[in-house]
Design brief:
The protein is of the alpha/beta class. The chain has 16 helices and 17 strands. Helices cover 36% and strands 23% of the residues. The strands form three sheets. It has a nine-stranded mixed β-sheet. It has a six-stranded parallel β-sheet with strand order 3-2-1-4-5-6, sandwiched between helices. A two-stranded antiparallel ribbon has the order 9-10.
C-alpha cells in the first residue's frame, strides 16, 4: 500500500480527494494517512463531516476542478487512520507516509518538495511546478540525488479528448503534423471573478507570473505532448488591467494591484519543424472568444477541439473514432481501469510510478520543461526578441526571474 500525506488543504483539494476515492473504488492500493495545512481548521475541513466545518466556496463552470463537491476522508477510506498537522516538517517526521502530495501556493512548492525528497518521500506537486525555473531545477536535482519520484499534477494532459487527440495524431489520421494554432480571450474567470479568491495570480512575487505561468504551463504542456519540444519563442506579454476589483458577499469592494501579466501572445517553432501560435488573456468579456484548444493542422486534415476535419471536408467525432477504432490495449494504456477522470488518471500515474520506480508521464522533468517554456515567453517579451527555450531551461537566460530568485534566496 502507498501511503500519502497531503500538504495544503485549499479549494483544489476536493478534486484530488475525489480522484483518490475513484482509485480506492477500483481497488488501487493507496490511502491518505495525513493531512497538513498551516491553518489546522482547513485540514479538519476535509477530514470528517461531523466536525461541522463548512467547505470552502467552490466556483467555476461544470467540469472545472474547482467546482468539485465537498468530500471527506472518513467517508471513503473508513479503514484508515488519518493524522492532521499544521507543520509539514512535523508530518514528515511523524506520519506513516511513503509520498507527499503538495497542493500549497506555488511560492512554497520548492521548499516543501525538496524537504520531502530529502526525508525519503516521493513527491507530486500541483501546477505551476515552481515559482521560478531555478527553483524547478533544484527540485529535479533533489529527486535525482535522493532517488525518489517527482511529478507535477498537470491534469490537462489526462483529459479524454487530449489523450484521444494524441492517439489520432500517432495513428496518422491527419497526416504529418505541420502547425498548431490556439487561443482565447475572456472566459468564466474573466475579467474579475478570479481576483478576490486568488489574488496571487496577479502578483509576480507570489505566482512567478500571471496568465503565462498559471495558464501557460497547462497549454504549453499539451503543445509539447502533441508536437514535441519547443525550440524558439517570440512573445509579447502584457498587463492590460492594472487594478482588478470585485465585490464580496457583503458588497465591499476588494482590489488588487496587478504586476503580473494577464495577456500573452506567442509564436514559436518546434524542434521537429512544426510551427505554432498561442494566445491567452484574462482581459476582455466574460464570454470567451477564441480558437478551440487545440487546433492542429496536418497534411491530411486537422483536429479542432473534439472534431477531426479532413481535407475533403469530412468531419469525424474524435471520441467516436477512438471508441470504434482503438484497440483494447490502447484504451487500457490511455484510460486504465476505464477511468476518464483526469485527476484520477494523474494520481494513478503517480502511484504506479512509485510502485514501479519509473517516471510518471508528467514527471518533474516535464514540469521543468513546461515552466521553462512559460518563462521563455516572459524573457522574450522583456528582451523584445526571440528566445530559445533551452536557454531558459538550462538557466542561461534568467532576467525575468532574477527578482524572484533573490526574494526567495533560491
Amino acid at each position: 500500500m502507498i501511503k500519502v500525506g497531503i500538504v495544503g488543504c485549499g479549494r483544489i483539494l476536493p478534486a484530488h480527494l475525489h480522484a483518490f476515492k475513484t482509485l480506492i473504488e477500483k481497488n488501487v492500493d493507496v490511502r491518505i494517512t495525513a493531512l497538513c495545512d498551516v491553518n489546522l481548521e482547513n485540514a479538519k475541513r476535509y477530514w470528517k463531516r461531523d466536525l461541522g466545518i463548512p467547505p470552502f466556496y467552490t466556483g467555476g463552470p461544470p467540469g472545472d476542478p474547482l467546482a468539485a463537491p465537498p468530500i471527506y476522508l472518513d467517508e471513503f477510506q473508513k479503514d484508515t487512520e488519518v493524522k492532521i498537522y499544521d507543520n509539514y516538517k512535523n508530518m514528515l517526521e511523524d506520519a506513516d507516509i511513503d509520498a507527499v502530495n503538495i497542493y500549497t501556493s506555488v511560492d512554497s512548492h520548492h521548499t516543501i518538495a525538496i524537504d520531502s525528497l530529502e526525508a525519503g518521500k516521493h513527491v507530486l506537486v500541483e501546477k505551476p511546478f515552481a515559482i521560478s525555473v531555478r527553483a524547478a531545477q533544484k527540485m529535479v536535482g533533489a529527486a535525482e540525488k535522493f532517488g525518489k519520484i517527482l511529478g507535477v499534477a498537470e491534469s490537462l494532459r489526462y483529459y479524454p479528448h487530449i489523450r484521444m487527440a494524441k492517439w489520432a495524431i500517432e495513428q496518422g489520421y491527419i497526416g504529418e503534423l505541420k502547425m498548431s494554432i490556439s487561443g482565447q480571450v475572456g472566459g468564466y474567470w474573466s475579467p474579475d471573478k478570479i481576483v478576490a479568491k486568488t489574488p496571487w495570480r496577479h502578483k509576480k512575487i507570489l505566482g512567478g507570473g500571471g496568465a503565462t505561468v498559471d495558464v501557460g504551463v497547462h497549454l504549453l504542456d499539451i503543445l509539447r505532448y502533441f508536437c514535441g519540444e519547443i525550440d524558439e519563442m517570440y512573445s509579447v506579454v502584457s498587463t492590460i488591467t492594472k487594478i482588478r476589483t470585485i465585490e464580496d458577499e457583503k458588497g465591499n469592494t476588494l482590489k488588487v494591484e496587478c504586476d503580473a501579466d494577464d495577456t500573452f501572445i506567442s509564436t514559436f517553432t518546434f524542434e521537429r519543424g512544426v510551427i505554432g501560435h498561442l494566445h491567452w488573456s484574462w482581459f476582455g468579456p466574460v464570454e470567451p472568444i477564441g480558437i478551440p484548444f487545440f487546433t492542429l493542422y496536418g497534411t491530411k486534415g486537422c483536429i479542432s477541439g473534439n472534431m477531426i476535419i479532413m481535407n475533403d471536408g469530412t468531419k469525424i467525432v474524435l471520441q467516436k473514432l477512438f471508441e470504434e477504432e482503438a484497440s483494447k490495449d490502447v484504451k487500457e494504456k490511455y484510460f486504465p481501469y476505464g477511468i476518464k477522470d483526469p485527476m484520477a488518471l494523474e494520481t494513478l500515474d503517480f502511484i504506479k510510478a512509485v510502485e514501479e520506480g519509473k517516471d510518471m508521464e508528467t514527471s518533474g522533468k516535464e514540469g521543468l520543461k513546461d515552466l521553462a517554456a512559460a518563462f521563455a515567453m516572459l524573457e522574450s517579451s522583456l528582451l523584445k526578441r526571440p528566445v530559445k527555450v533551452k536557454e531558459v531551461e538550462e538557466g542561461k537566460l534568467s532576467n525575468y526571474e532574477k527578482e524572484i530568485n533573490e526574494y526567495y534566496k533560491i
